[in-house]
Amino acid sequence: MNYRKFARQQIQSIRRIVGNAAAISALSGGVDSAVTTVLGHKALGNRMKVLFIDDGLMRQDEPQAVRKAFARMGIKVTVVQAARKFFAALAGLTDPEEKRKAFRDTFYSCLGRALRESGAEFLLQGTIAPDIIETKKGVKTQHNVLDQIGISAKRGYGFRTIEPLKTLYKPGVRQVARILGLPKAMHQRMPFPGPGLSCRVLGEVTPERVEVVRRGCRIVEEETASLKRFQAFAVLLADRATGVTKDGRRAFGHFLCVRCVDSENAITAAPTKLPWAVLMKIQRRITREIPGVTKVVYDITPKPPSTIEYI
Ligand code: XMP
Prior knowledge:
By secondary structure, the protein is α/β, with parallel strands linked by helices. The protein has helices at residues 3-18, 31-44, 62-72, 83-90, 96-118, 129-137, 153-157, 170-179, 184-187, 207-224, 276-289, and strands spanning 23-27, 48-54, 77-81, 122-124, 160-162, 231-236, 241-244, 250-262, 270-271, 293-298. It contains 11 helices and 10 strands. The strands form 2 sheets. The chain has a 5-stranded parallel β-sheet with strand order 3-2-1-4-5, sandwiched between helices. Strands 6, 7, 8, 9 and 10 form a 5-stranded mixed β-sheet that branches. Helix 4 runs antiparallel to helix 5. It is globular and about 70 Å long.
């Protein structure tokens, strides 16, 4: 595939569809929305506003990092504070699909309001082929798939979507990112799901539980960075597990799982054979640095039968 030609065609197509109207692009910190935003910026310049919805479910320091990275490319990013709305929508939910649907509805309601306020008609989003395939197959409701499963973005939220990457898989998106000149750190970054850390919290998603998994993810990412695997993160399980404190008392604490996988396109994945020393270092750091964690396990399941994330 000629990715240079692909990028050129998408820029022309965005320009043609939007015409004289205005658009918004929503960044998540991942490579898909970053590439979509740069394509949109090249097509529309200042007629496209770039938003980053801070849903409280992002990795550590993400909003500031995204804003800085885009400022270096000459693109202004507006951060919308919405964490309270997301936690309110997720409160009390434990069923995975209910959590995904609550996330999706809150996400698009926030965007719908931003679009109305700025008079924009179009939302550019970084949906890619596996998002659509897996949602249609019924594996899970990916946060950014609407029209393909019969939810009209126009009727439900008041805008039309443009999805320039919807025919591509991750390796193709990374190629387009390189051609567009996105920094290496951005196009080589591991995927991060749209619903953020809520995909990595089993049971109820509360600010406290998200903070535990955020710190776990940071440790796992740091300790596996040099190994350059497809994805590596931590997951907070729904139960608690018995442990023992340094002074010999019983502790009944959080139960974290480490996940690291190798994959080409995220449709299938294999668990990474992480060196024992790396696993032990992750375990030591998690139990020392995150208060209340009493057990750390490593997930050795491929996809299928498992999926990469936990909800
Ligand atoms: P699963 O868990 O389905 O994940 O094996 C496959 C890939 O997709 C990411 N993922 C998502 N990305 N919105 C996204 O943009 C979502 O709702 C979503 N759910 C999972 C996941 O991180 C993995 O790379």
